[in-house]
Amino acid sequence: LPGAIIPAIGGLAVAFLRRFFVLPQHGERLLVRMRNAFRARQRLIVRATLRAMPAIDGHERDAGIRDQLVRLNESALAIDEQLSEGGALGSEGCLRARIFDAELATENFVAVAMRFRATGNTVPPVLSRSLEAFCRDAFCDSRTLAGDALSLDKGATSECRRLYASAENLTKATLALTAP
Predict the structure, then answer these.
(1) Of 71, 82, 146, 173, which has the fewest Cβ atoms less than 10 A away?
(2) For residue 135, what are the contacts with CB-CB under 8 A and spacing of at least 6?
């Protein structure tokens, strides 16, 4: 037993030195990585939602999307916790609101998309292309979605218009999140 105590104390000392002197955490860098992870989770959710759209009976996919939404919520909470620890550069209230808006817009998009899928409609190709572009780089211009919505004929269903509106809200919230 005494032989195990000395290596344990040595390991704790090395971990302490590494944590505070060799590789100290920088709140700003950690916050940037957390925001990037949040946006990546957001893109994964949109991509999974698009893949689930053609399937009328996609309960397993729906469960996976719900799990990803939970992870997105956990990412938002982790960012909020990092901000409360003083890791932000001063505009933490604005960033908190942006994170909340982006998370809410993502959840709203998924809910509208699942309701749209339940009606048996297919996603218009122009919207599908815009959302695929969003998934590729997460910086697509929300005006593209607005222009696509305007190009719809007047006979578009209300569900289709709601899907466009929620997708546009999603891109606007994400663009606001990426703004400095």
Answers:
(1) 71
(2) 43, 46, 47, 50
Residue 24: what residue type? P
Indicate the burial class of 115 (C-beta count within 10 angstroms; 0-12, 13-18, 19 or more): middle
In the predicted model, is pLDDT for residue 29 greater than 50? yes
Query: What CA–CA distance (Å, rounded) separates 122 from 129?
Result: 13
Q: What is the pLDDT of residues 90-137, one digit of tens each?
A: 566 788 888 999 999 999 999 988 888 888 777 777 777 778 877 776
